Amino acid sequence: MPPLPSSPIRYIKQHLLSPATARTMTSLSFNDAYRILLDVSIKKSRKVRGGNYVQLATACQDGLPHCRTVVQRGLFQYQNNSVLKFITDQRSNKVEQIKHQPAGELVWWFMKSSEQYRISGTLSLIGNDATDAELLAVRKQTWGELRDTAREQFYWEQPGVPLDEEPLNEEKDSEIEATTSTLNIPKGGRGEDGKVLPPPDTFLMMLLQPTKVDYLRLTDNNRIVFEKDGEQGWTKQSVNP
User: Fold this and answer.
1) pTM for the full model?
2) CATH code at 117?
3) Which domain holds residue 113?
4) Mean pLDDT of the 209-222 span
5) Which tens digit of pLDDT belongs to each residue from 47-60?
């Protein structure tokens, strides 16, 4: 594939963005060329409810695909690369899948602009046992930014455990109440002083470092494939939609 021109930012402004949008982008310096397009798409859909929901696919040890909707919680620069951020429970099935096969792919559809991004790359999990101070700081910040109800979920019982759906009687009702009280779930993930508690072991920050981005815009059938080329940066290729 041919490399990006010497100024990928100029190329994207001239060929992929509307003149009005290009005029507002005067200080772009991302190494990842696709980020310019993605940031514009995110900005256009910022007020769209569910606009940050994406479909993430992983594979289990049997080689079977597993896809689910997850909340995309922002991007940040790490070691000179753009990284997409998510959260997950250490006890969830996807964690074992990622440990077995860290390759993953997500699909992000922007309804407002009729754009689709298929982003594939390497998944990683950041927990309390991480040694990178920068990633631990991002994880702590992400934990603090969650809604109280979201933090509480990480103190619940094991995800996927079957619920008792039998009709309740007074005896069973009292047993469940006693069991619930022994769980001692901190309300809102906060201590008695109202401050957010440190993230528990069950809380993982999940990162996707892209190696390939397949971009499609249906308004003009424009499709471009960006691929990471080792330490040389990114290549791009326009292809048939």
Assistant:
1) 0.81
2) 2.30.110.10
3) 8-128+199-238
4) 97
5) 999 999 999 999 99
